[in-house]
Write a structure and sequence with these properties.
Blueprint: H1 5-29, H2 34-88, H3 92-174, H4 178-188, E1 194-198, E2 201-202, H5 211-219, E3 226-227, E4 234-237
Parallel strand pairs: 1-4
Antiparallel strand pairs: 1-2, 3-4
Helix pairs in contact: 1-3, 2-3
The structure holds zinc ion.
Length: about 240
């Protein structure tokens, strides 16, 4: 395959655009934020589970408190009823029994109030634990939203970059012989496509050419397409090649 030195140099631009396109394509598919977003999603599941546990504890304490409140209400109603009866009775035996019951109701109410205070304290702690976990989740969500927005911007920029690259590439390719482009495309499937040959080295794979290969390169006419014996890419010789 033959190509003018200028066309060969143009292949370097095509290879550069292809390299940028691969990078942009990688960013578009997997923006740098993707890994952390994945971590956050997994964390969010665990955090939601913990929130459910803490909410369950709070609900149980809440039920306990409601039960105590209703016990207090029952005891207070009985106390009011007994006090009414005591005021109304003239039977000393009844009065004695009512006084006895009022005394034990007083003790019961005092115990219930102590228990209520204890449960209220536990409810406060359980509510604080729920709020703390909710704050953790809010933080995870905020980071997730921020990273998602950033990732979206990266994807949009990469998509625009890919469009620009495609336009630039089409313009260069249009000026080159179809056969040369076909050859480059084939080579580019397995290598960087085209690379500068400089200081005895293939810029595509960084391989330093051996004496025999170097000699062959020196002997090849300048409009002959030569490839790297190591990676197979088109080696573009220029005045920088130092041959
Ligand atoms: Zn190479």
């Amino acid at each position: 395959m033959n190509a003018s030195p200028a066309d060969q140099r143009a292949l370097l631009d095509v290879a550069d655009l292809d390299r940028r396109a691969r990078r942009a394509e990688a960013s578009r598919r997997t923006p740098p934020q993707a890994a952390r977003i994945g971590e956050l999603t997994a964390q969010r599941t665990l955090q939601a589970h913990e929130l459910a546990l803490r909410s369950g504890v709070r609900d149980d304490v809440q039920v306990e408190l409601s039960r105590l409140e209703s016990d207090v209400a029952v005891a207070e109603a009985r106390r009011a009823r007994d006090a009414g009866r005591l005021a109304a009775t003239s039977n000393s035996k009844d009065a004695q029994a009512l006084e006895h019951e009022l005394a034990s109701l007083k003790k019961r109410l005092s115990d219930l109030e102590d228990a209520e205070l204890d449960v209220m304290e536990r409810l406060e702690q359980a509510e604080a634990a729920v709020a703390a976990q909710q704050a953790v989740i809010d933080e995870t969500n905020a980071e997730g939203s921020r990273l998602s927005a950033e990732a979206k911007a990266v994807v949009a920029e990469a998509t625009a970059e890919l469009e620009r690259i495609a336009r630039d590439r089409a313009a260069i390719v249009a000026s080159l012989p179809t056969e040369l482009v076909g050859y480059y495309d084939k080579v580019a499937l397995r290598s960087t496509g085209a690379a500068l040959f400089t200081r005895g080295t293939c810029e595509g794979c960084r391989m330093v050419l051996s004496g025999t290969d170097l000699q062959a390169l020196r002997n090849a006419p300048e409009d002959r397409i030569v490839t790297c014996p190591e990676c197979g890419c088109i080696l573009v010789r220029t005045e920088e090649s130092g041959l």
